[in-house]
């Protein structure tokens, strides 16, 4: 499989269980850029809250989004892929404030498929009980936001190829 070089810095977004942690590294490899796992930017208090089945508040998310935004900013002009749910427009606006050229790949799918995938994964702190709150919070990308939506049906390779093809259709960011 051929690498596709891009100066885009991409945030792979979507509700829990859409495959951000699976697709993110595959997409980064296809683009020939580094990958950062968004969950690694969470403070321990956030992980403890989610592990207990408590949804995060916006106040909980701001430091996490700021840390991701700094990583994205530092990759400007070099390219990179990072995962982040980025469910609300205000969260994406916060990332864009730190890194104006960021591009979003919104992983989308049927709720039943996503719940099924979540129920089979192991070692993740996000319980399926929070999926409803994730869908309730989700504000899909708007027309003025740089990004693409990619369906998560199929295997990871197929999803990654759809994401690469969709990204290739975007204009290159201004450096």
From TrEMBL:
Keywords: ATP-binding, Gluconate utilization, Kinase, Nucleotide-binding, Transferase. It catalyses: D-gluconate + ATP = 6-phospho-D-gluconate + ADP + H(+). GO terms for cellular component: cytoplasm. One of its GO terms (biological process) is D-gluconate metabolic process. GO terms for molecular function: ATP binding; gluconokinase activity. The keyword Nucleotide-binding applies. It comes from the Bacteria. Its EC number is 2.7.1.12. The keyword ATP-binding applies. Pathway: Carbohydrate acid metabolism. It is an enzyme of class 2 (transferase). PANTHER family: GLUCONOKINASE-RELATED. NCBIfam families: therm_gnt_kin. Belongs to the gluconokinase GntK/GntV family. This is Gluconokinase.
């Amino acid at each position: 499989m051929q690498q596709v070089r891009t100066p885009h810095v991409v945030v792979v977004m979507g509700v829990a269980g859409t495959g951000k942690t699976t697709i993110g590294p595959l997409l980064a490899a296809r683009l020939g850029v580094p990958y950062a796992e968004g969950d690694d930017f969470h403070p321990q208090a956030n992980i403890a809250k989610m592990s207990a089945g408590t949804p995060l508040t916006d106040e909980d998310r701001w430091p996490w989004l700021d840390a991701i935004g700094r990583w994205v900013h530092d990759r400007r002009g070099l390219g990179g892929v990072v995962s982040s749910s980025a469910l609300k427009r205000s969260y994406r606006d916060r990332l864009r404030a730190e890194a104006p050229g960021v591009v979003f790949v919104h992983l989308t799918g049927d709720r039943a498929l996503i719940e099924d995938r979540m129920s089979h994964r192991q070692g993740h702190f996000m319980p399926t009980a929070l999926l409803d709150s994730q869908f309730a919070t989700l504000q899909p990308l708007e027309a003025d936001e740089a990004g693409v939506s990619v369906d998560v049906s199929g295997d990871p390779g197929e999803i990654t190829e759809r994401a690469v093809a969709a990204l290739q259709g975007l204009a290159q960011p201004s450096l």
